[in-house]
Amino acid sequence: MPLDETARGVYVIAPTPFHEDGRIDLASTDRMTDFFLQEAGADGMTILGVMGEAPKLDAAESLDITQRIIRRAGKAGIIVGVSAPGFAAMRALARGAMEAGAAGVMIAPPSTLRTDDQIVTYFKQAVEAIGADIPWVLQDYPLLFTVQMTPGVIRRIVQELPSCVMLKHEDWPGLEKISALRGFQADGSMRPISILCGNGGLFLDFETERGADGAMTGYAFPDMLAELVKLSRAGERDRAHDLFDAHLPLIRYEQQFGVGLAVRKYVLRRRGVIASDAQRKPGSTLGAKARAEVEYLLSRLARHDARAKLAPAG
Amino acid sequence: MPLDETARGVYVIAPTPFHEDGRIDLASTDRMTDFFLQEAGADGMTILGVMGEAPKLDAAESLDITQRIIRRAGKAGIIVGVSAPGFAAMRALARGAMEAGAAGVMIAPPSTLRTDDQIVTYFKQAVEAIGADIPWVLQDYPLLFTVQMTPGVIRRIVQELPSCVMLKHEDWPGLEKISALRGFQADGSMRPISILCGNGGLFLDFETERGADGAMTGYAFPDMLAELVKLSRAGERDRAHDLFDAHLPLIRYEQQFGVGLAVRKYVLRRRGVIASDAQRKPGSTLGAKARAEVEYLLSRLARHDARAKLAPAG
Amino acid sequence: MPLDETARGVYVIAPTPFHEDGRIDLASTDRMTDFFLQEAGADGMTILGVMGEAPKLDAAESLDITQRIIRRAGKAGIIVGVSAPGFAAMRALARGAMEAGAAGVMIAPPSTLRTDDQIVTYFKQAVEAIGADIPWVLQDYPLLFTVQMTPGVIRRIVQELPSCVMLKHEDWPGLEKISALRGFQADGSMRPISILCGNGGLFLDFETERGADGAMTGYAFPDMLAELVKLSRAGERDRAHDLFDAHLPLIRYEQQFGVGLAVRKYVLRRRGVIASDAQRKPGSTLGAKARAEVEYLLSRLARHDARAKLAPAG
Amino acid sequence: MPLDETARGVYVIAPTPFHEDGRIDLASTDRMTDFFLQEAGADGMTILGVMGEAPKLDAAESLDITQRIIRRAGKAGIIVGVSAPGFAAMRALARGAMEAGAAGVMIAPPSTLRTDDQIVTYFKQAVEAIGADIPWVLQDYPLLFTVQMTPGVIRRIVQELPSCVMLKHEDWPGLEKISALRGFQADGSMRPISILCGNGGLFLDFETERGADGAMTGYAFPDMLAELVKLSRAGERDRAHDLFDAHLPLIRYEQQFGVGLAVRKYVLRRRGVIASDAQRKPGSTLGAKARAEVEYLLSRLARHDARAKLAPAG
């Protein structure tokens, strides 16, 4: 089912599981997919994202893993990152992903864009390249891409390009931006879109209250994210914040550039989701001090959330 | 007493209190100084920092408030930010600050620096400009300045410039950097320096454990920072983290670019430290939603820390 | 006489003459002022520019040299650069410059500006700070400042801020921008402004043909620039290009970041305008190979332009 | 024959010829290859460069055109740009290019690199990815990539990675860098490498005198570049500069970001090398004023160089 503006809940940014020797770990990929979508309560997954290890896969591997995850996912929506240095590659990735059964694609702006017009023009050209029939997610991540899109620019993109159905919101700070965009919808100047939030979930407690529809991020406890979104939607404010606050020390620790993926894979391995936390070269690893810090954070979290109660590290 | 490498504890990054009409609020400045240094247990203050409202002060105002705070501070050390677009202005600020009784000055790298040699050369020239007799703090804040200093480059600066006595550490991620620098000291390749951490305190719980001497940041509860540093130094790990975790939701909220100062002044006003949270133009303000979120965070914090139990907002 | 939108011709970006020991060379300053304005046919000068050595002057020196040049300049218009990290300093510089008799001031955007709205807002705040009565020049130099202003954004600034009377145009490429702005004037959507071009004059041959009013740059033969602008205005296209092409090898050589000022001062010294090509520390110098290259370029230029026929280098 | 450190002369950065409807123009591709290598006297070509239209080709098209040009080129060396967002894609491109018969590949640093160590590490990882048996060109283009490599860093790369055989030098300013690198060779601290210069040839007159082995750039008169390099090598200094100076007004005009490719294709079409100056979408075009300016520059050049004497534009 194609992605549309009614999407909500949690779309997990999925890492790529590898064996220690650098081969893709297919069994872990399957288990991870099942875990995210069956056990953790996620509504979908986003794969081949710009911050993950997708650039370390060659074209055949990318297509293989995309197809495998989509097949395994069943009815859940899989979004495929198609940002590329040129529109020809973007088109090939996008058409290939949709043929494989993806729900939609995600596009980030190249870091050279500066003016409002440059930004809008880029996304018009991208849609012309991939085709107006593919639903897509606009990724707004100024801290990484150094491209700043005002609410007004996002509105121009949404209004001029009907196939844009979702915003991956990870501006920082970003709470007022959510309010501004929802205000545009309320005053009728922008059609509705889905807003899912990134940034490792660091502000998700308030983002849902501001009108976000959920999360698209990769925190190692996506089950908590899904629960938080439901509590918030049910108006259980205090319970939502209690849950969030218990996880915040670890969320914050995982939200470190470069180190973050190593932490995420480490915790996913400790939770039994993937077999190894190896990264394909060139990758980062956690030193002994960092591993001990993560274990300490897990042990503290376990006092509040049984999911963090893990067998001793091997 | 001049700043040296034994400095530890908390040096509060001080905001500038204004009246609603934009004039400097001298009474609040005095009260804030007393609060930070007498009540909150801070060891010093850092003023005229690059992220505060110092650039909105004219030269006479800057000198006035520097002198006033230094007089009021008594024996506590006052560090004065002297980053400037040119060395002539930097020299004038630094000599003026020291004559007024400052303990030392702080210098940030200009955002144009890229290569290792450019960075080292800049600080050599800066020391030549201000004079080798003034103790100074090296500010390492890549997220803001876009200048990346490896541990090796910091070691070169420390070894070649004896008047550099402190690092204001706010790289992100930064825990391994602290370990690397303390490792240099341990293996004898770098002389000891003081390391105080910024970034709003977002990682202070682990930074102290990695070997940092304390904090130099502006969180609205510097009394908590001081307590945390003491607990950590006393080996009270769990108590330190319990205290930190209770504050983390607000620390995280205050650590938003641009918005942060508005939150900080709002909370300091609510705590009775300053009379108004006005910023001199052009400034940011908290909208109604943001104010309500801060109040909610304070009410939740108050369950764990009585200092956050405040009279209802007026 | 205050600067207005009818300004045309050449405003020389003036270097600061120093003695070998770093003191300001007042006699050379006077001689340089006379040379630019009496002999070379320039219509004005721009001082304390962001790329010169202004940041190496302390506040008293800046004011002194500003007053001295303005007195010496007589009726010619002196524009003073007032870009500063904060509005308080900008206001102080601007008011001081105008009291000293400046014709106007020049403001560059800080490198942090990204979106169209941020840019327009910044200049509104700047005008609010310095006062709407001071005529000012908008400096558009994306290569240096990394701020990109579209023609539409420049139009917004011009229309919303009547005290903006001139554009220092140094976008690169920039010919179409001049045409776009003059098109706005032609269709009545923008009021007239003066456009003077920078970039070392590298495109001045065509910029005047596109509608620029002249040059504001620092090439060591401002007399050539003045002559070129006159030829172009008189419709002597081929003669203008012949003159320009003869100088282009040297213009191009001088238009090298960092090295440029050393070349400029070297040639001005060789022409007898200033006594020394010393830069105040930290400065750049020409190595032996570079000096020989400049001499070779001068000797080749001398075949076409007698002004380049100089006594052998000492 | 694989590329090595003895390479000299001119390697033309080749554009991709398109039909008006966006299809690759194979006949023009052949004619262009013949022209560059047979008539213009170039020693090789560089294809799929980062500034050309390579990102607009899909993978199959890239491989097709690479194979076609290599077959057509005969013994001349073809260098293939393999810069990519990830090492898997870089490896695939590099192995594919070498299998097709390329002489070597070219790698540019990603714009996120800052510190000396990051830069050296990146190229080590790249060589590990593509294999140490593939000769490669280090592209040093700070203005575009915002990565600054000091001569010392280049030396580290050259010394640690024997398969690096050439530097594409386009730092700006860059003359002293050539001298520094040749100095390293002279003092024995760096093994010899080939240095070919880019930047549209804007400084080629002096770059050859500083020790560069030639040019790797895309100016529309590569025959002039080849002649210049020969004159310079033969010690015909004045004749080399006479030739260069005649072309400089056009070289300078072509050296405009974004516009440059449109100028280049326009002139190549006017010279009969390619059938159309169309760019695949999204592309830039020359407006009427710009075309007239180029025609005027060609007519002026024709007084000195008969190759610029062209039939009237159609």
UniProtKB/TrEMBL annotation, chains A, B, C, D:
Keywords: Lyase
Binding locations of pyruvate: 216
Entry's Gene Ontology cellular component terms: cytosol
Keyword Lyase appears in the UniProt entry: yes
Listed GO MF terms: 4-hydroxy-tetrahydrodipicolinate synthase activity
Similarity comment: family membership: Belongs to the DapA family.
PANTHER family, A to Z: 4-HYDROXY-2-OXOGLUTARATE ALDOLASE, MITOCHONDRIAL, DIHYDRODIPICOLINATE SYNTHASE
Name of the protein in its database record: Dihydrodipicolinate synthase family protein
Organism: Roseicella aquatilis
